[in-house]
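Review form for a predicted model. The reviewer records the input and the model, then writes brief findings.
Reviewer: anonymous (R2)
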Amino acid sequence: MNYAKASRADFWTGLSWVILGGAIVAMSAKLPIPRHLGASAMTSPGLVPGLLGAALLALGAILSLRAWRGRSVIGSDGEIDPASVSTKRPVVAGLMMVGYALALTLGLPFTPLTVVFVTVFIGAFNWQGQTMRQKMITFGGAAVMGLIFAVTLEFVFEQLFFVRLP
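Model under review:
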């Protein structure tokens, strides 16, 4: 893939993120604020989706602007480094996320499932090129991170936002 194709691809990809982010912001702004329950604009159900949509919009705009200015990520010879472009990792990540979502949908308990998901996710993408000792350290750290993340997330949603998790 040459430089012009990379710039075009980045431009159109960024533009699609701008459109998606803008649609999310517009739709989240239309969500009603349940004022009869004491909610305000800062506690409305559209706040978090609106912020996420705004982030997508902003990052998409940055990507498109960089491509338009001719600053796509390319190698020193004007070609994209094939080693830096892989479809395997995003596909594996997507399959893992879909599997996690399906497992939650089936009613598996949130905290243990999240610990396992985070541990396997981190381990899967940091596994290559390590000795067995490094792999054990990576998995141990990933398990600790997964436990901290799952417990914190469960606390925040159930105790602060009053959202029951599976």
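Findings: The chain is about 65% helix and 0% strand.
Further findings: The mean pLDDT is 85.
Recommendation: see findings above.
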